[in-house]
Amino acid sequence: MVEFFQHVVNGLMIGGIYALMGIGLTLIFGIMNVVNFSHGEFYMLGAFGVYTLFTMLGLPYLAALLLTGIIFWFFGSIIERLILRPLQHQAIDVSMLATIGLSIFLSNLALIIWDPTPKDIGMPFPLIGVEIGPITLTPIRVFIFVAAMLLILGSHLFLRYNRFGKAIRATFQDREAAALMGVNTGLVNLVTFSWGTAIAAIAGGLLGPIFQVFPTMGTIVSSKSFAVVIAGGLGNFPGAILSGLLLGVAESLGAGYVSSGYRDAIAFILIIVVLIVRPTGLLGKARRLG
Amino acid sequence: MNRITKIALGFVIVAVVFLPQLVNNNYILRLGILAGIFIMLASAHNLLMKVGQLSLGPVAFYGLGAYISAILSTRYHVPFLICFLIAGVAAALAGWGIGRLTLKMRTAYFVLVTIGFAEFFRLVALNWTDMTNGPMGITAIPAPAPWFKGYNLYYYFVLILVGLVLFVLYRLENSATGRAMLAIRENEVLGQSVGIDSYRYMMQAAVLSSFIIGLAGSFYAHFFQFIGPEILGFELTITIVVMVIAGGRATLAGPVLGAILFTIIPEVLRAATMWRMVIYGLLLVFIMLFTPDGVMPALVKGFQKLLELIRRRNSRSQKEVSADQESILADGLSNLVATINSSSAAEAAKQYGNAPVLEVDNLSVYFGGVHAVEKVCFSVNPGEILAIIGPNGAGKTTLLNAITRLGPITSGVVRYKGEEITSLSAHEIAKKHIVRTFQHTSVFRRVSTRRNLLLAHNGQEPNGILVNLLQTRELKQLEEVGRQLAEEILKFTGLERYGDYPANALPYGDQRLLELGIALGADPHLLLLDEPAAGMNPTEVDNLMVLIRRIRDMGITVVLVEHDMKLVMGISDRIIVLHHGKQIAMGTPNEIKRDEVVVNAYLGKVYKDVETVGC
Amino acid sequence: MAKKMSLLSTLLLILGLLLSACGGGSATQAAPTEAQPAADTKSESPTAAPTVAPAEPVKFGVVEPLTGPVADSGSYVINGMNIGIDKINAEGGVCGRPLEAIVMDGKNDPQESANAAELLITRDQVPIIMGAWGSSSTLAVMPVMERHGVPLVVETSSSGKITLPETPGFAWTFRISPMSAMEAEASEPYLVSKLGMTKVAVLSVNNDWGRGAAQVFKEAIERQGGKVISEDFIEQSATDVLPQLTKIKNSEADSILMTTSAGQIATILKQYVELGMTQTVLTTGGSNYPIAVMGLSSKEIVEGTYHLVFYVPERFDLAGDPELAKWYLEEYKKRGLPEVGLGESYRGFDGVNVVAEAFKAVDCKADPVALQQALPKVTFKGLSGTVAFKERDGHQSRPNIYLVQMVDGKMVVPDFQFK
Predict the structure, then answer these.
(1) CB A117 to CB C246 under 8 A?
(2) Which of B292, B316, C109, C126 has its CA 20 to 30 A from that of B84?
(3) A237-275 pLDDT, tens digit each
(4) What is the ipTM of this complex?
(5) pTM for this one?
(6) Fold for domain B345-433+524-615?
(7) Model pLDDT for residues C193-240, shown as the tens digit of each residue
(8) Going by C-beta distance under 8 Å and a sequence separation of 6 or more, which residues neighbour residue B314?
(9) Are residues C268 and C345 in the same domain?
(10) C1, C3, C7, C8: best mutation site toward chain B, by most B Cβ within 10 Å?
(11) Distance, CA of B414 to CA of A236 (rounded, Å)
């Protein structure tokens, strides 16, 4: 039983990051109709960003994280302007292939910039397990989980109460109607993509310290986020959060009790089952955001 | 085929066939073999693209074929040819099964679920160590035969295979199946409304495509003599998809070119070592940015321009019509004398008699709490023009959708010529010669006007894959009927002058005319028109009226949903009025004009307890 | 019209491609140095400073991963190889001619690696190849070697299959790196008795290497009366191993056997510390250079862990040639190469020296068959013992295998393993 709870807690911690990656991906799909295959690479670059700022330049961890977020906000804007905007009226597979090309480009460019050796970010917090009852927790994991949840909450509040957030929600519901009502949908695309990129980069910076940082680290996270997005319903914000946490727990339990080898299959089985049984995702396709 | 093409074709065939003798270089031969495998993969994958479905899971079938072939030959010493065929059949079965589960999905959902299947297959190959030897892979897979030494034999084997595959795909493309696939890709709903069973064609595409991919997988295993779970990796999927899309999806030559290009490009880029994949990624982005339809169509365009430059022709072949051009309808159809002789409507009408052709009995459609159509009853007599009118949101289009099964039915029964058709699907309805048009202009946009009409007849042609491959006499006859019908419709509608122009280049009014033409192309006996006059000027409406009457005179019964009162009052034999989903009046135009309830409904005075008529 | 056009232009393009492909062979051959990896930017290019009179270089091919998930390891091997080439050329080359490597990226992908080998043999006409890192890639390259009759020197792969006579290409394959079974054999005497590994949890990467090692070590442990109580295989790219570790922590396991890359070991050990685990840790496989693991985590995290290695840089006395080992370590540091790569770079150094010795044995003739016949007799006193293909019908060498323990940030070689 103790082991079970430990698995659940472990799963929630990692699921928080899946959820964080998932909301970015789902919103980009919902608003821009883009299946972004370079999302995992933004995550990888975020980790390298924190590595460069925190480990190499010696900035405080939180500052490095924040700065990485800001840098990748602008990076996202550039990508949106240069690649996605010219393709926004093309079929969905065109922009998808462009993002696939981008992801190949970015991960191999990272290989050249930071060389293939895995990097260690170093621990911003002492690596001592704290026993809470029968469960072991480390400060860094708690920090990661809390930070992920705060970012999700912040995004939610922004979409709910901010004027521009409302514009994003309007665009999500009906792009043409929103445009007719004076919403600058081009700007909405730009902000959505930049925001998604920044969030992914921060997710990378958050997980960096407990894992290694290397150029191909984005691939696996990328596929997990897709699973999260589908299971939650494409374009469904709360669905992505729920399925992110669920996937984390399911994987932990699966790896703990069933088989390590099939652990990564859980995500894909989830995709297949959800799509076949409930094609609109766990919570159905939301026509509402935030 | 002109002379240059013939000469070039000759050269290429000679070069390809004698490549081993010409270069005598194993590396080039090996690339040739790999290119051959990739041509098979890309062309087969393209079949799914042809029906508008992007799959990111072709490696599942490739891996399946390779593994089955490898396991059979290494463990059970099954001869190559048998392994080869079993691999293809097994992959086809898997394609059928997965198709059953997934082909109801569209766009991103389909894309992502196919990734899921491919990854799942990979993980099985990786973890089912007893059978697949897991990550260690299967070694020492025997060559197809002991005398298969050197690359020449493999090269010729794959060459023949590629030739066969391309031949099959070519036959298919130029058959009813190929046209149906084009129709589905261009406009699936319109395709269904003229009788094209999109699900069936998608299944055909999935099964044939996975069969070919399975064969390619088996050949790969015996050529490479080693396979591991890597062949199920996402990277290979990307390679295949890139080949198809960058080459030019949905064309026959595109994937071939793409496969050759993207076999060679990475090899050429080897000189760039570390930068190789960086350049590759960037190249992909640029291809998508600058030639989103693929390299092949871009090349064709460039080549045409070049030819025009040489011949000093001005760009006459740029099939575009200036937007302000008067539509054919406005020009007047004074010269409208042609009739459609190939239509089977008149004959059918003669045989049928006088009983109502369509009976709608207590039909209701609810969307959650919204009662869009509430217990509607009416019948349509043969040879009449029945109009359905009502304010916006009255449920007219929902009713039409329900009858043609493009929309849901909550309860009630629809009978056509006495036979219940409620349980049929949209394309089956169309096969019964019940055809509709749409409120929003719906044509096969990027297809020429003439071809639009050919596609429309497709629902009436056989959809069996073998019939289409063999191109039987029956198929040819039906095709001929379709061709003749198309020519007659072109004359009938006056669209003849736009025959070779793509539909989206036509002026708006003429696109609506083309829509009507498409519906006629499906050989209707009962024609349901959804606001055909929307957006037309009075002259055009006048002419449309003439046209609809002439259609009726050909023996086609017409149901008309319309707002334009001039049109409705001018040609209808009877009128039904819907309001908030309820049928509030029915009668001749003169009766309806005087009906107080109707007038009030149109003026916005809502009666809570309007008495419904009909049932 | 459009259809004809498309057909015509495809045909023309295919024709063009065919012609360019035919012409490509000789054009690129003139500039083989293009294929030098970027990994050696810090070292001198082997052809840049020939100390001998400009003679026709002696060329050989190399297939290593330079991109993809294991690009780091491939680049370390290349670094060691470049040190070897520079040393050989500084001392006059082979047969008075400079030795030159033509390096191709195989991405550690079987198909890519086989293509690269094919290219090296047919375009560059190399008479011998070193590579292809992972066992899957090597197994895919071997049929190509057999088809062309060109020998392959394997410096990294561990799968037992590679040197089995029934594997296609066996006759042309000569392996320096040890098989997992050799590691298990070497460590069997002390696994249970000295390290106390009686109830072992296996946590390995899910590939031929991890699975193969798990199998042979399980047998060794069971022969000694120990028991393997759980086996978990994780993906090469897996980062979160808390579920597996939680399971092991809550089981009765007293020790964990790990076979995976240094990076993944570091990740596992971090999470091992997070959970406050106390089980004995032993890593196997030779890619697990403990200093690299420490570099990717910290001194505290690796404290007390055991590792099976084939090369202990500071212990010159254990090398085949102590002088050479001393020189190598100094040279490596002088070049400022990454310290995390030291433990893997030796394979490239030993490998290239074996290639050079083979060339010397045939008077540097570019004759693959002669090289194949010469290789079984080649010996080289290298960094990881003496390379000599004495086992498996003259196709398998047996290098050094040592147990080291990390104590206070340093590698310590426990004495109990020496009889």
Answers:
(1) no
(2) C109
(3) 888 899 999 999 988 888 888 777 777 778 778 777 877
(4) 0.88
(5) 0.86
(6) Rossmann fold (3.40.50)
(7) 999 999 999 999 988 888 889 999 999 999 999 999 999 998 887 888
(8) B308
(9) no
(10) C8
(11) 38
